[in-house]
## 1
Amino acid sequence: MNVRVSGAFLIVLACAWPGAAASGQNGVQPAERTAIEPEAMLRPIGHATRTTAKIDIDGRLDEAVWATVDSLDGFIQSQPDAGRPATERSVVRIIYDDRYLYVGAQLYESEPGSMVISTLEKDFPGESTRDYDIFGLTLDTFLDRKNSFIYLVNPMGAVRDGQTYDDSRETNFSWDGVYEVKTRIEDWGWSVEMAIPWNSLRFDPSRPDQVWGLNLLRRVRRKNEDSYWAPMDRRDPVHRMSKAGTLEGLRGMRSSRNLMITPYASATSASGAVTAPGDRGGNVDAGFDLKYGLTPKLTLDLTYRTDFSQVEVDEEQVNLTQYSLFFPEKRDFFVENSGVFSFGDVAERGYRMGASLRDFTLFHSRRIGLRGGRPVPIIGGGRTTGRIAGFEVGMLDMQTGADGASPGENFAVARVRRDIQGVDVGGIMVNRQSTDGSGSFNRSWGVDASTRLLGDLILSSYVAGTDQTDDLPGGHLASRLTAAWRDQLWDISAMYKQVGEGFAPGVGYVRRTGIRQSYATIGAHPRPNIAGVQTVNPYVEFDYITSPSGLLETRTGTAGLGIEFDDGSTLSSEVLDRFERLDRPFTVSGGASVAEGSYAFREGRLSYSSSQGRSLSGRVTISGGDFFDGDRRSVGVGANWRASYRLAIELRADHNDIRLPGGDFTADLYGAKVRYSHSTKLFGSAFVQYNQALDQMVTNLRANLIHAPLSDLYLTYTERRDMGGDVQERQLAMKVTRMIAF
């Protein structure tokens, strides 16, 4: 193997290296750090107080009642100095009345001018919440120690809200709740004041005394410090509800049926060589979404003439494998409550498990309303999610219209799960059926189970099968068994998986069929007393894939090392030893073909990401080595400039230089994104991408005005054009929604 490291990479690394100066940034030298286990501390209990006082949500916390109720404080660090008290004080109080849950937080800061605030935009798109100062709140309203509502607020009042499922296995930040929040920045720090209406939360009103799971997060980004009210290890997020604290004192709340209707109207103008003739020219449309609480635990969502003209375009990808690419779902209706329907290679947060939903998911909603990457009209449908008699349930039914020679189709999904003596057991059924009378169908089913033992051991498994009109040869089943252990030091996992050659989920995604896969890894996460170093992570992985008859198809051995520094920057390296057997040739994206045969090759990868807490940050990744019967050199760079909390600029460039006996070629991607936030209600973005392999430029301009709660005005422009000048697709769209609550 011949892997070269460029001088540019070394210069970037030298300039951005945290160095010994970072070691004392919290007033604690590495030698003073003590191995205190936050999880060994008692889980705290907080109290909410009923009030009849009028609360004005202005971020001031100047009503007299705030000073008279119990406070939740004593936050404990998860990083950088686990188990030690937070270096900046946080004081939270919770009160309530007949209509609202009120949360007030005073977040003291010794250097208010150094707070990191990256955006005013709702849901912080394109950002990791680790990149700025934040206050976080999670509510486990059923006290099942698994699921939660989550609210993350930055000092300027921008909010990211969502739902989490199955003790952090799944997160859904496309959920939008109704609430009011205001913040204020003072010379002593900043404050948060929130009012969350009862009808925006699910809980069991039949319980006279409500006891909820609760945790609170405070992030001080300039110190790379996270602290929690219920102490947590650094590997756990604030929504790991099995380790949360408890909130008591809630009594006599009533949850309404929460009926909301959101009609929309849209106007589009479309053109381009690949735009369907029926979609060209101007078009005006209207429809609606409806949300209704069937019971306090069960919610119905209906949609008619569903429109997704406001959705941001996919990021371009270069495919250097013989398998199809996975593109994530971005459409709000399908992303909301999507965790209820998850089935497949679900990856546990913080565990290295050898597979993820990007390898196999039995239900992938992108198969609804999209065909060959092109939109198909969705007539409408509905979804019911929630709890019935101790079961967590999800049911979805959608109807698409005919599109050219393709008939209309019906998509139906039913998912059920239940905790039985600490074991989460579930099943799913998926049906895709043509509605033109031909009887064409594709059906999938599956059962799964998972459990957590000894706090750190996870056992999970599934069995799934498919059936369709025209049966494919080979087995129609897929199954997996996984065991994974992760504590503060060790990360150990093993997995065995089988996928039949005829396994074909028509509303899912499966990367490879006709395989038997064995995977194992062992890694460690020591926290050494080294100046500027937070953790190191050496690990090895072994992945072995054969055909059903036992013929070796893929073998990958990996040795890697990751380092996280005190300021949040990371350095990682990997060396891979690979074997691939191809039973048919394939063409690399935009380049030459790789012939069938057996190939053994090695490659290496080195990557550095600087601290995202700085106004200017970036990443550099260099990889290369053998590539089948040739070689490959790849360089990826990215830069983020946060000019202010209003303006952010992101640049991306990925260069692949590939040499094969069939020919040499390059496959490059370039992208630039500009985000501007005028306020927490008005923001916009410009996203331009160039795919050198396709010689195409993709442009997406998007503006969003939140003119009322859960009510938006969107203006979008999307264009895909060949660099020769031919426009493949072009669309200008305006869409307005208005939520009406009853």
## 2
Amino acid sequence: MMKFKKSYAFLFAGVLALSVGAGLLHTMPETSPVKAAEGDVYNIVTSEADLVAGDSYLIARINTSGMGYVMADQGNTGFRYRVGLPTSNLLGSGESRQITWYDGNGGATGAALGEHFVEFVLGGESGNWTLQDSETNAYLVLNSNGNNIHSSTGADSNGWSITINPSSYEATISPNNYSDRSINYNSSSPRFACYKPSSNQQAVTLFRKSTAVVSSPTVNVSGTTAGMVGAEVELTAVTQGFSSEEYVYNWTVAGGSEALVSLTNETTKTVTVSLNNVGTATINLEVTAGEETANTSVAITINDVLTVAEAKALEDGTNAYVRGIVYAKYGSSYYIADSDGAGMQLFTYSTLNVNLGDQIVVNGETDTYNSAKQLANPVIMSTEATGQTVTPKTVTYDDLNDDLLSDYIAIENMVWHSGAASTTNIHFYENGDSSKDLVLYNHSSNSADYESALATAMTDWQEDVTTVTLTGVYARFNQTLEINLTSASTYEVDKVETFARSFLANLTCDPDGVTAPSTEEWNALADEFALLSEEEKAVFTTGEGASQVVNEAIAKYDYVMDKYGDSTYTNFMNRTLTENVNGVVPAVDQTNNIIIIVSVCVLALSAIAVFVIVYRRKRLSK
């Protein structure tokens, strides 16, 4: 103990010297700060009277569902991250709410390597507080950009002001040099940061380390208190205040919960709970040591495993377990879908250990971004390489709505308009209609393989001619409708539609009969037609199942062939022609037309004159 106090004395002297040099007053704790230990209890701060220099605090965000997030440190990146705190670590409500530190990291889930919870020691004085990590002795300071917070060996000379809302107990922790900002939980990132108020910024609360001495034996429970049907969770007894350490444990299922859960190892410190059916089960625990006994109970929520379509219908902020097939990768994120194409994004900054084609069960919190439902902070619960595939939903442009966002879709008759494989936005118009614009969006962080595949596919494309069935992840950014360039993106050329558009665009022909098509154009189109399959050729030969564009191409073809005959132009479509076949081509020029018209007029006038003369003679004879 003497060495411990001496080491602290040196620390105190060093910090005090720095403080005086900076013109500040920092009051350090009377006892040396230590990392939170098993059994430590933190009570919610309900007023500014609970702010005491030298005491230890947690900065936390408590959701309405009871899940907690406590500020964590990740080395040089500073106090930007958070780790989840199960509801079993959050006891009570209102003024009685507590966080119990069970296993040295607060029963945290999802902590990245190198992260730890930060227990802050309050220093300084009201209006000019300092917050110092009890484990590393680093201070909480604000970056020069006024947003991010990080650790520093020296205290920020500006300090922090702290106020407590007397009704909600929310804490406003503001840097004195940016009074319009405060420490919040940024739900869109997610992380703790220092921002101006906005819809993404959620208020934090402070929890103060309890100094109360346990005078009677108590027992609490740590572990996971929510899971999916078919899973197993573990609960661990945490005892305090017993005179003896010869514990006898007795875990039991409360009446009415027998159909929901079953227990294994129920006479040991840690019990395994099998989650059998959807509902909320209660587990009782009795611990005996000598003549002392303590009891507690814990509620476990068992959730159904939802389809992707069911998860997309949930309200934001709902914790859900979802089963889906990993069907696309977009940047660092993955998409999962039901087999019929109903999809959603798994949004995370972490690396997910999944492969395309895996069927997974994932736990996360529903969220909405750009009108698309996503699952934030996903945790993979199970992975199975089933080889299942996802069938895209075949839709038209007019079908596109927000319900389809993140779905795997296929949309036909998309005519390439502009762009190259190296550009960000490549435009497609449905049936060439510019009002029906769908953008193939190339995310800058996508794999080069996706971009390379697109570049290869586009090698022989012709603008406003090449027609494809565009398949991929449907997205929307503001009012721009998109398909994201991902591993699931395909662009299958419709050769029938493409040839029809090519024929209409590349064959020069004056319908008045003055300008005949060049044989070079005709033969080039014949060569292009020869590349079609027999089935594709038959659409032009018979006209069966032809679209409007194909019918327009057939009409233009028939006009040329009927007018000029197959001795001039090869009947490469093998169409049945109606007249002027086998080279019987009438003379076609304006002079002949005029002679014919004049001749007809002369004959008509002569006939009328004869009729008039005959008629007059008859009348005179009477």
